[in-house]
Structures are given as structure tokens and as C-alpha cells.
Amino acid sequence: MGPPHVQEVPAVTTTPQAVRRASPRTRRPATPTDPARSLLPATEPVRLLDPTGTPLPARTDYPQPPADVLRELYRRMVIGRRFDTQSTALTKQGRLAVYPSSRGQEACQVGAVLAVRDSDWVFPTYRESMALVARGIDPVEVLTLLRGDWHCGYDPAARHTAPQCTPLATQCVHAAGLAYGETHQGRDTVALAFIGDGATSEGDFHEGINFAAVFKAPVVFFVQNNRYAISVPLSRQTAAPSLAYKGVGYGVPSEQVDGNDPVAVLAVLTRAVAHARAGNGPFLVEAHTYRMEPHTNADDQTRYRDGAEVEAWRDRDPIARLETYLRDQGVIDDDAVAAIAEEAEAYAADLRVRMNAQPTVDPLSLFDHVYAEPTPQLVEQREQVRAELAAAEQEGNA
Fold it and tell me: Which residues, 6 or more positions from 147, have their beta carbon under 8 angstroms from its beta carbon?
């Protein structure tokens, strides 16, 4: 094999005219294209409604969702908030072991699930109970895990919804793997992974987003930046301008959105899902929002944040914001608002009744499904519990 062919470069003839044309004073050198430019989020969070509910100038990059969709968004947000407050009350009554409230994050919780199809997969954290209810999952089944049961209350395969995840960021890896597998099955499934701001500091977040980027897995990583990872403020999580910038390092396009603007959240996530479904790989969205309640019922929020800060965020209420806009547009009126509120109360009442019924639990079921084949140690433990139950029953009958 001979030497590789090298194309000759013609000699450049320099003339006074060419020198003058190339002079820095008359012609600036071409600026190289920044490969990260298309990946960077907007410098300010996308917003389509101001905090009072007044519409801002329309944007071609994020068209406003149809009126009927926004009405349904409002309805599910109202029901979701009532579910959330009822669940908090059930915790205080001892009906739940723990409950992480998502009050104040209704736009993110409901807008996210409205942006995906029922056939898409959702990977929630422990705080996404409202999102799961908005997805149509039975609220009692949603609260089963938080009630202290050993398993997820709903069927993940049937609902295309993974169990709520307590370990931080592990759902990112799961979402990337499932989405990658779905593409190999020839399905256009998108995986939506909910993430908290604190979870972006975990290794699983970085592994998941990097895997999805390299293999173009259709995942939308949705970060709800509610300012605190339990008691750790955002300033201790990152020095970046925003968490959305974390996508750039992995070649993932990103966007940041006002998480208390329901219209903007739905518009941005709709575009992100379309991007992933079209085969363009993952997309990272950061929503700027606020957790109005403590981290869980076991948290004392007064130890790490000021009450005035919480009150300031009440003026950015996402439900009031959307209601004002829909009223001004003639989409809803007093009767519609009252009917939705009544529906939400009926939903909460039904939940109370069903959650007050004491579940029948077989203690021996604790040993089921631990291993495909029970180990000798597990068999021994199960027999010990069986003997204790039998002894207690005999004692009670004596």
C-alpha cells in the first residue's frame, strides 16, 4: 500500500489589498461556534405568566398550551393540594408513618405528568405523591408505602410508574436504563425522572444523565429546585448560575423555568418531552419553586429558614396565579371554581374514610419475595415468628 494521498494546498499570494482586507481594524476574525451554545438554558427562568397571573408576551419557542388543557391542569392542581393537606392531617392522626408535603409545588407536580403520555414511564421521588395522584393512581395505593407497608401500593408495570424512591437520585439511573431499553424494543417511550435539588449532588444523578446522553436515551430529568435539601440551602449544593447548567457538561440541552408558573412549566416540559421522543436524547429542566411545608412531618423548618421567607413565597401561589389567568380568559368562572373545589372536598372525604379502615396484614408476608428462593436463615426467622404468633393466639384464647 502506497503513502496516503495528501492534497496540495495552493500558495497564497499576498497583495496590499489583501492585507488591508485582513486588517483587524477593517475586518474582525470569525468567532468559532460555541458547541455549548445550543445546550445552555435561558439566562432567566422561562415565564409566561407574571406572579399576578397576567400573561407575558407570547414566545415562539414555548407556545402556550390549549385552554382546555390549562383548565384540566388547574383542576388537578386544586385536587392535588387538597389531597396533600389531607395526607398531612392523616400523618398527624397516626394514619401515616411519614408524609413529605409538596404544597407550593403543584405546578411542577401536575404539569410534569400532564406533559407525558400514559404509556411513558414516571420515576418519582418520595415527594411525588401529588404527581402520582394527578397521574390517576388510587390515592390509597399511593399512600400505602408511606403508611408503613413493605411494598409499593400500586402496580408499577400497569401504571408505568416506578415505586416512590427514598434513596436520593437512584431513580435517574433506573430511568436512563429503562428508556434505553425501550428504544431497543422499538417503542417511543419517554422516561420522566423527578429529582430534588439536593439529589443533583449525588453520583447517581451524574451517572444517569451521562449514560442517557451517551446512548441518546429519551429521558427528561426534571429538577424541582425548592431551595432546600432538607436543611441544606441551594448555596451549599452548587456554585453554578443554576442547576440547569449541569446538563452542559454531559452534552445535554437544558432549560430553567419558573416552577410556580403552571403555564410555563407545562410548555417547557412539553417541549422537553417532544425533544426526547424525537430521538434527540435526554433533556434537563430545572424548575425554580419552593416547598411551603417542612421537609416531612418530622422536620423542624424553623431551625434553618426564616418565616418571612416562607410568607414571601405565598404571594407566588401557583394555583392562584393560574386561576386569575383562566378567569381573565373566560375559561373558568365562579361556578367552575366552586365545582372543582367541591370535587376536591369529596376526594379528600373519600380518602379519609378509606384510610381510617385498618388494613388486614399477615405478619408472615414480611418474608415473602425477599429472595427468589428463601435462604435457610430466612426460613428459620419465619418459623420463629410463626411460633410467636401461635403462642400469642393461645394465650389470648386461654
Answer: 95, 96, 97, 153, 355, 359
- The residues carrying an active-site annotation are 291, 295, 304
E-strand spans in the chain?
A: 121-123, 191-196, 219-225, 228-229, 232-233, 254-258, 283-288
For 92-130, the pLDDT digits (tens) are 999 999 999 999 999 999 999 999 999 999 999 999 999
By C-alpha distance, which of 123, 122, 87, 121 is closest to 102? 87
For residues 118, 123, 128, 129, the Cα torsion angle rounded to the nearest 10 degrees is 60
Q: What are phi and psi of 296, to 5 degrees?
A: -145, 180
Question: Radius of gyration over alpha carbons of the chain, in Å?
Answer: 26
Cell numbers placing 312? 414571601
Q: Which residues contact 193 (CB under 8 A, 6 or more apart)?
A: 123, 171, 172, 174, 175, 176, 208, 219, 220, 221, 222
State how far the Cα of 51 lies from the Cα of 71, in Å rounded to an integer: 18
Q: How far apart are CA 314 and CA 80, in angstroms?
A: 17
Q: Which residues does residue 86 pair with via DSSP β-bridges, in sequence order?
A: none
DSSP characters for 107-145? Answer: HHHHHHHHTS-TTSEEE-BTTTHHHHHHTT--HHHHHHH
Cell of 342: 367541591
Instruction: Dump strand ranges (E) for 263-378.
Output: 283-288
Cα torsion through 75, 80, 86, 88, rounded to 10: -150
For strand 232-233 and strand 228-229, is the pairing parallel, antiparallel, or unpaired? antiparallel
Task: Tell which wins on pLDDT, 100 or 298.
Answer: 100
Q: How far apart are CA 141 and CA 132, in angstroms?
A: 10
Instruction: Return the closest-CA partner of residue 249 out of 224, 288, 282, 223.
Output: 282
pLDDT tens, position by position, 2-34: 444 433 333 333 444 443 444 444 445 455 556
In this structure, are residues 244 and 275 in contact, taking their beta carbons and an 8 Å threshold? no
- pLDDT score for 95: 94
Q: How confident is the model at residue 358 (pLDDT cuts 50, 70, 90)?
A: confident
